[in-house]
Amino acid sequence: MKYQAPRGTYDILPEDIKKWHYIENIIRKFTSLYNYSEVRVPIFEQLDLFQRSVGEDTDIVEKEMYTFKDKKGRQLALRPEGTASIARMVAEHNLQSSKKEPLRLWYEGPMFRYSRPQKGRYRQFCQFGIECIGSSKPIADAEIIAIGWQILQEAKVPDVSLEINSVGCPECREQYNILLKEFLYRDKDKYCTDCRRRMEQNPLRVFDCKNKICQQLINNAPRMLDNLCEECSIHFDSVKNNLEMMKVPFTVNPEIVRGLDYYTKTAFEYKVNYLGAQDALGGGGRYDGLIEYLGGKQTPAVGLSMGLERIILSLEKSGFSFPEENNLKVFVIPIGAAALQASIEMMQEFHKADISAIIADESSSVGSNLKCCDKNNVSFAILIGDNELKSGMYVVKDIQKKAQSEIKKEEVVSFIKNT
RNA sequence: GUGGAUGUAGUUCAAUGGCAGAGCACCGGAUUGUGGUUCCGGCUGUUGUGGGUUCGAGUCCCAUCAUCCACCCCA
Known about the structure:
By secondary structure, the protein is an alpha+beta fold. The protein contains 15 helices and 16 strands.
């Protein structure tokens, strides 16, 4: 084979597209129910935008971005995530939320990260996200978390767990970092080399270490959750409270650290335990500082994103059967070339009535054309040959019921419409 | 980015270093214009790609590409 899709990319084949439509329809349903508007932002942005918003020290920016220069030498990058663009858009157009209602936005599209591919981890993958912009209230956090939860429930993704945490605001996080570093440095030499590096750059990451020794040591470390400032603490309690009101089940996991730097206060993830290493279906959190940081007005915001591939993968794994779609309604079968003209007109009549119809190959046998109907789940076949042309009565076959009747050609469309 | 496994027909899988095969799928036929079953017949391959060893390579070696698994990271 001369060409194949580049590493980490894939084709969505005709037989698979229904899976995407299935989940996309559910997304549209819930974004619409909660009054979120779809927006579309560029697939590439200034490199700088991602460096600043996602964070220079994150893996995403450090080693996973597709960067390039255009012909004028501009430094650009394929987007590795959606929120940075949304925040840029809000800042750039000075999008206002009314005093009462935050701006509610959603998006969907391909994201790009240069990482080593695996099942459920691709270099081009599809994320959808929702962003609630302009509200600092805990109910906004809960709304976002609930929408994601409801989408996964409605899609019938089995055994999803929701874990939430608070990563605090810049002030209390800085305080906490000092505290945590003190703790870590006490037994500095006992940690693995990775963790010793983490202590410098992002001490929170030590919690993620899989090394047993590190895990034991970190067990006694001070927790962000126990060191939140009063405001963050109250906020977190209210989020939990609101989630309970919404009957969204969650567990608090103080170890959730998101891989993007812009998060403040609430952070959360939706997880499953049957996708191997790719166990996160989505996640998100609050990013109160980002829009201002990008030059906009001080605007609190909270959002989430989910990976469509992983949702689909979960459903496939659970044996879910996706709803069929787009079955051909009518197969017009001309018997002999003389019937071609009448068959084309018949087809066009169906199209005028919004009924899907195509014409069979007039040179192959009626039998094989009917077989074709069976295989493709066609509802009706119209047979048009010399006899039918003479009499003006077409043979209409109901493929599923195996019944056939002769109908005046002018009445065929309405007959099928009413069947 | 690190370590490991795999790659044969559209697909699922066979083939001791010795003629590349089977099921499913596909196509055609079973008295001329009527069907998912059945029966009969047929097609399908530069064995991922490129080198090497050998009288001879799907099989052994090297490289490369891709997929998968674990790590890492996360969606």
